[in-house]
Amino acid sequence: MDLASIYRAEYGRCVATLARLLGDINLAEEAVQDAFTTALQKWQTLPPNPGAWIVTTARNRAVDRLRRESTREARHAQALLLYHQDEPSEVGPVRDDQLRLIFTCCHPALAPEARTALTLRLLGGLEVPEIARAYLVQEATVAQRIVRAKKKIRDAAIPYRVPAEHELPDRLPPVLAVLYLMFNEGYASTAGPLIRTDLCAEAIRLARELAALMPDEPEVLGLLALLLLTEARRPARLGPTGDLVLLADQDRSLWNRPLIAEGHDLVRRCLRRNRPGPYQIQAAISAVHTDGAATDWPQVLALYDQLLALAPTPVVALNRAVAVAEVHGPAVALAALEGIDLPSYHRLPATRAELLARLGRNDEAMAAYDQAAALATNETERAYLQTRRTELTRERRTS
């Protein structure tokens, strides 16, 4: 494992642990970044526990900084206290360090967009371009949100803790959104390998922790079910040569059956509660996809109709159009795409291209594939789109 992989896997846990030790998120992040810089300079071989090494080094860096910047006795005393604490034997000595950090970053005093942007940066170790893609906004906008959120946490002295039980329901929506976006970035990364298994695994682990903390919240169970059912399909998502394989073409024998069984059980538990929400409906859609040898598309479309009523977003409308194509044909689905505004999202022109190709409008389809490939930031997805475009070119030459 190289340092870049360790950074992706350990960054969020290290920042969470340091935030607990220091009580200062800014200082924690800076110390962890300094520690990784030191690792780059010093590591000849990997230490037995890279995460613990990073935490220990980051803590020592923070102690040194506190001493240098100390202008009052209390600041110096804090540095001494940190210096004499036992060195951590593992990255997360307190099991819910990362949940604490999520709830801190998702405090209601922060703007909704800033909450998730900050948490994705601190917990997932996502860079600003990756977060911008998740939000479908400009990178400068994301950077400003993160800076403002950190300042607000510091100025308002927002505590680093899991909220009291009566506070949890109001704080839940942004936490769920963070875990959802974290998993999505792992399942379809902005750049580099298409799938970041470390990020997917961490999002699922935190969703399990949250479900244990709030077992009676159906949306928590719905999110966990959605992540499990999506993760179950991951082994079939790439072909032998690393090329993208769409759902319809996947080898279902490769799917993770224990995860599917667990996800289906969670969906049934949600249904019994009869309090539908967006994550539960998305989980139900994934359950239909993983139930049997073929997808029941009319059922999927009915569920997307419910989801669109609850969450009328452009991405939901786009996904619904895919189901429309399977039930009512590509012409009806193409009409459903009209008015969807996702200017920087490559899956909109990619979907349009596929529908146009099915209608035999190959010239228009090729142009749409070109547009989608230009917008795609992940090389695996871009290669798939370029391959589809090439196939249409061949069909045109032989026709």
How would you describe the overall organization of this protein?
The protein is mainly alpha-helical and 399 residues long. It has a domain at 5-84: Rna Polymerase Sigma Factor, Chain: A (Orthogonal Bundle), CATH 1.10.1740. The chain is 70% helix and 0% strand. The protein is built from 19 helices and no strands. Helix 6 (112-124) packs across helix 9 and helix 12 packs across helix 13 (278-289). The model is unreliable at 79-94 (pLDDT under 50).
Name the poorly predicted regions: 79-94
CATH 2nd-level architecture of the domain at 5-84: Orthogonal Bundle
Give the overall shape, derived from the CA principal axes: globular
Mean pLDDT: 87
Provide the succession of SSEs.
HHHHHHHHHHHHHHHHHHH
Helix content: over 70%
Strand content: under 5%
CATH topology assignment of the domain at 5-84? Rna Polymerase Sigma Factor, Chain: A
Biggest sheet overview: none
Seen as an oligomer or otherwise, the chain set is single chain
Short description:
With 399 residues, this protein is mostly helical. Helix content is 70%, strand content 0%. It has a domain at 5-84: Rna Polymerase Sigma Factor, Chain: A (Orthogonal Bundle).
